[in-house]
Each structure stands twice: as structure tokens, then as C-alpha cells.
Specification:
It is a single chain. This protein is an alpha/beta fold and about 350 residues long. The chain has 15 helices and 5 strands. Strands 2-1-3-4-5 form a 5-stranded parallel β-sheet, sandwiched between helices. α1 crosses α5 (about 110-145), α7 (about 185-190) packs across α11 and α10 runs antiparallel to α11 (about 245-255).
């Protein structure tokens, strides 16, 4: 690597900070914090750390609580974290891993072993970032193919991906979703959301670009885009083992993002929790964006009007808990819409 990576060490013990810092400073830029307050501050400042070494020895707040705060802060939500644990640790390891903890290192600390683990995580993080960039580029290229004939803009993809990510993050600790929604899953859902309408490639321009209301037979053709998109992604997955989670989620979203909570959606009329969580997130995001933006067949609604329609769809079109989270964070969704608004 040409750039020197930054490592943030958070530990209540000054002696431990000196020990770890001494082991790492020869190869890395080291920041230290002996309190949760300073650790949270440094975790979000520029240059942002490439890795955080967090000690379980945090009596002012507890390592588990600090880990949660680091993950809830957008500035540090994706920073890899190594946890220094005590021999008789009482930390909920499963919950820590669910929050995105990368690895555990047991005390007493062996500087050579610590340096090797840190080096490994830095290298892994760099590879993952490169792979993620390739995935994002490929997905956006595929999504843009659909846009060649679809009147919706690439900003629709950016907005809906942003809504999905924010909505999922707001449900991260919700009892109904906590077992499924992890940081990596949320990231994959947000990326794969770009392919939700990939099936529209197969729909005639006469239908996609029609300015008036679709006739029943035209609407029947339009609805096939969900299944066609799912089938296209399924074919792309053939022979890939194990299945790529991002593509599995993309297939779910493409297939079922027009299903409704009460079973009145399409293509399969799924009801309630039978609809995959990824598709339920996408359904709300897609409808909200469609309401507040002009289409060839309708003018744009105001944010307030769209909000009332989403509320009216609670328990009918949308998962009730997702609607509640949407309303609670409504200003954030409006901000996302503004950030990626269409420019005419």
C-alpha cells in the first residue's frame, strides 16, 4: 500500500494504549483514546481510521455499548473493528459479530501476533473495498441498461438505494428484523436495489413511455417486468457456487418489490412476512420516490402528500413497522430525495 493506514486504539488503560501503540507505530499512523467520548470523536474525524482496535476494558460505557454507538454513527459504521477481550469475557459475542465486528484478540497482548492480525485485517478491508467497487460498477452498468428505455433517471436508483439503506438501518435493532438485518446485509440490499426494475428492459417502449393510463392488457404486460427481472438475475447466477448474497437479494427485490402486505400485490400475491424483507424495504422506497417525482403519466406530489399516502398504506401496501420507521425518520428521506433530485 502506498498510503499509511490509520489505526485508532480505544482502551481505558494508558499502559495498554502504550503497548499497542508501540507495536503498531512502525508501520501505521496511530491514534489513541482512553475514553469512549474521545474514541467516538476520533472515529469520525478525518482522516478516518482504516481500523479500530477496541478494548473490552471500557468501564465508562462498556465495550458492547461503545461498539453499538460506533456502528450507529454513519462516519464509523463501516470501519472494521478488532476487539481486545479479557480471558473471562462476558460480552455477547454473537451480538458483537452481528454489529460487524471483524475479529477478537485475547489478552494478554502479544505485539507480534497483534501486528499480524492488524495487517491481515487492513489487507482484507482493501480487497473487500476493491471487490465492492467492481460490484457497484457492474450493478450500475446493468441498471443503466434498463434506463435506456425507462423514463426514470439514474437519480431514481441513487434515491431508492439511499431510502432502502436508511430505512434498513433504522430497523437494525427492531425485534422483528434483528436476526436478518446486519451491516453487510444492509449494504448488499442497498446495492442490489439498483436492479429492482431490470426486467423493464424487456418491456416495449410503447408501454413504458405511454403518457396516459395503461389499458388492462398493457398493464398486464407491464407487470411481467418483475418476473422477467428475477429470471434474468437467476440465469446470471447459474453455476455460481456458493450463491452470491448480493445477487440473491437482487433477485428477491426484482421479483417481489410490487407485492403488498395485504396480499393484493403481484406477481405472486404474497402476504405479510412471506414477502422477503429486502422486497418490503424496496416497495416502500420505490413508491415514495414514484410519488414525489414526475413521470410521463403523472405530475409530482408534494412530500407531505406522499407521506399521507404511505401512512394510508400501513398494513395494506406496506409492512406496518417499516411505515412507522419511515415516519419517524421522514425528514431524512426528504433530505435524500433533495440530495439526488432530478435536474431538468
Amino acid at each position: 500500500m502506498t498510503d499509511i493506514s490509520t489505526i485508532l486504539i480505544i482502551d481505558h488503560s494508558v499502559e495498554t494504549l502504550d503497548l499497542i501503540g508501540g507495536a503498531l507505530r512502525a508501520q501505521y499512523r496511530v491514534l489513541t483514546a482512553n475514553s469512549a467520548e474521545v474514541g467516538l470523536l476520533l472515529a469520525g474525524k478525518q482522516p478516518k481510521p482504516h481500523l479500530i482496535v477496541l478494548s473490552e476494558n471500557m468501564p465508562d460505557i462498556g465495550a458492547g455499548n461503545l461498539l453499538t454507538l460506533l456502528r450507529e454513527n454513519p462516519a464509523s459504521s463501516e470501519t472494521p473493528i478488532l476487539l481486545l477481550t479479557e480471558h473471562d469475557s462476558e460480552l455477547d459475542c454473537q451480538h458483537a459479530l452481528q454489529l460487524g465486528l471483524m475479529d477478537f484478540i485475547s489478552k494478554p497482548i502479544k505485539p507480534a501476533a497483534l501486528l499480524a492480525r492488524v495487517r491481515l485485517q487492513i489487507d482484507i478491508t482493501q480487497l473487500l473495498a476493491e471487490n465492492k467497487l467492481v460490484q457497484q460498477t457492474t450493478i450500475r452498468a446493468l441498471a443503466h441498461l434498463a434506463e435506456l428505455s425507462d423514463p426514470e433517471t439514474s437519480n431514481h436508483i441513487l434515491r431508492t438505494s439511499g431510502y432502502v439503506r436508511h430505512l434498513a438501518n433504522s430497523l437494525l435493532q427492531h425485534p422483528r428484523f434483528i436476526k436478518f438485518l446486519t451491516r453487510p446485509i444492509i449494504d448488499a440490499i442497498a446495492q442490489s436495489a439498483a436492479l429492482h426494475d431490470i426486467g423493464k428492459i424487456a418491456i416495449s417502449d410503447n408501454i413504458l413511455l405511454k403518457s396516459g393510463k395503461l389499458m388492462p392488457e398493457e398493464w398486464g404486460v407491464m407487470k411481467t417486468h418483475a418476473l422477467l427481472g428475477s429470471q434474468a438475475i437467476s440465469k446470471a447466477m447459474r453455476g455460481i457456487k456458493p450463491p452470491v448474497p448480493l445477487l440473491v437479494l437482487a433477485k428477491e427485490i426484482a421479483h417481489w418489490h410490487h407485492e403488498k402486505w395485504d396480499g393484493s400485490g403481484y406477481p405472486d400475491g404474497l402476504v405479510g412476512d412471506a414477502i422477503p424483507i429486502s422486497a418490503r424495504l424496496m416497495a416502500l422506497a420505490d413508491v415514495f420516490d414514484a410519488l414525489i417525482n414526475a413521470r410521463v403519466y403523472k405530475p409530482a406530489m408534494t412530500n407531505a402528500e406522499a407521506r399521507e399516502i404511505i401512512i394510508a398504506g400501513r398494513g395494506k401496501h406496506f409492512d406496518p413497522d417499516m411505515v412507522d420507521a419511515f415516519i419517524e425518520h421522514f425528514d431524512d428521506f426528504v433530505a435524500i430525495a433533495k440530495k439526488y433530485q432530478d435536474i431538468s
